[in-house]
Amino acid sequence: MTAAFTQAVAYLFTFQSLSYLALGTGIGLLFGAIPGLGGTTALALLIPLTFGMDADAAIVLVGGIMGGVPFGGSLSAILLNTPGVAPNAATCFDGYPLARQGKAGMAIGAAAASSALGGLIGVAFMLAVIPIAKAVVLLFGPPEFFMLSLLGLSAIAVSTGGKLIRGLISGGFGLFLAFVGFDEVGGGLRYTAGIEYLWDGVRLVPVLIGLFAIAEMIQLLTVGGHVATGGDSAALSRVLDGVKAAFANATTVLRGSAIGAFIGAVPGVGGTVASFLSYTVARQISKEPETFGQGNVKGVIASEAANNAKDGGALIPTLAFGIPGSAEMAVFLGVLVLHGLEPGPRLLLDHEDVIYGLIMALSLSCVLASAVGLALARYLVLITRTDVQYLAPVVISVALIGAYALESSLGDVIAAAVFGVIGYFMVRFDYPRITLVIALVLGGIAERSYHQSLLMSDGSHGIFFTRPVADTLLALIVISLALPGLRLVAQRRKKT
Amino acid sequence: MDSDSFRRVRVPLLLMLVMAGVLVGAYGYEPEARALPVLVAWSTIGLLVLEILVQAGTPVGRRIDAALQSKGAAPEPERVPVSRALVYAVGWPGLLVAMIILIGILPAVLVYVFLSLKLVGGKSLTSALTAAFAVTAFAWTLFEWGMSYQLFRGVLMGDFGGF
Description:
The complex is a heterodimer.
Chain A (H helix, E strand, L loop, with lengths): L1 H11 L2 H19 L4 H9 L8 H26 L8 H12 L3 H26 L3 H6 L3 H17 L5 H16 L1 E2 L6 E2 L13 H20 L12 H13 L1 H16 L5 H14 L12 H25 L5 H12 L6 H6 L1 H29 L7 H20 L2 H19 L4 H24 L11 H28 L1
Antiparallel strand pairs in A: 1-2
Chain B lengths: L2 H24 L4 H25 L3 H9 L14 H22 L1 H16 L4 H22 L17
Helix pairs in contact in B: 1-2, 2-3, 4-5, 5-6
């Protein structure tokens, strides 16, 4: 192990490897920041470029991309309320309000520091868990996935602060959207209205692009002005304040990273769930939950730490069992196979140096991406001072091109535009968008796991209550739902 | 119910109609396929009833509001007139999507950015043209040149591949 580690370090710190790493990180930042592109597209497009490379160099390049994408996505989430990639959506909730208050630099600083820390913790988690990975992953069956989805959905109830009913209504519509398309259980089509595009369901990324990027730009166009309405967002001190905030909230970083790494390791759940879960947990246990969504820097820290830590976790099933935890990991699996590296337990034994190379590349690229972000922060925040009459048509155009680039589908363009209109009216009539998105993300997982569980138990619902991990998750659901009530009782007692 | 109350409940009423449609649709599917959609639709309709009670300011609604520590009735929509909002929210994005379908992505972006800056933003001809060409050039450089990715050319140009 030590020899393999030393070999990986020696290889990584050569001019060639560092150049590949920097290139990968730069590409990752760019693809992460442009809505609709993301890591999967970047990796898929770069597969042909790695044909002529040796496996080590290809892995370093890929590690750089995977490390750069999450932070790139957070930049557009903070500055334009546009999640570059889906897991950055949770960063919008407090990052963008901070930008509106003229504290974009602070939000970027916090995102950069928590991204780097989250990435490093995620990798450390991977190193620690690899020996016991199989046992942990096997603990999660359909009943546990169902409970995990319910845990996320229950967070809807308490994440809307003062808009509980409207939040739940949005959640109901989000679940409905998740039911659209091919029904995996019955084999039929639901709610497609004869539109072929909807057979595959409502795709998340066009929804996010519409609800956040386009809706926000429409909203800004109707009132004019700039994104930032106050403060001095370009001040360097703000950026450093954000970095300090991440270190001052080390518990939030650690908790978010643990959630990200753990959720990332569970195949099929994904980074979006990880960052939302981390965000809602941070909000629930905060002493000032009402400040979340209004520009609380802890919201940025929680979601970004989880978002960056998830890659370390997702590598566990990908490398150890050949089970990709996400689309990005599936493409990464393709890169490994292309270079003669067959994922599975043997990979860890036969190509230890390559694995350590990847781990180190991922760690370094997280730090590198954050450093680049910090260096550019004071220039990037000028976007928030740009006249919205210029900004809005540009963002709407790039967002729709990004939506098209996803699958070369005009349906995605139309969907993004339609959800832009829906998002605008949700803002106008004060219906939370966050709950719709959470429900859309979790609805499919919840329904699939529900039916699989019932198949396992011959239709008995008892299966959800007789397994230790499912029971633990159920307890967490009850606690999360009870927390606001307990907090209310505590507040009343304090007053009397 | 006075006109003010009706204005506040019109959105939940509209949403209830939509969710009723979802429910009716659900009962047309096989029992397994409709299990969760039916549950979600009934639950959402129940919540919409509560929202209507709250928004209408009924005594029951006020009690619910207090129990949930709600921020109260939804704020009145901002004072941007509906007609103006519709033009911005539906008109301009709709125009861009229609142009994308007809003439393709790059020409549509060029025309949209130019028209938006000139007609909505009131910018000078030079500024509008410069910005429009800059955005189009960026999109072409990134997608078509950098990624060798062919953007949609438009049905008028004989491209039906995006459908």
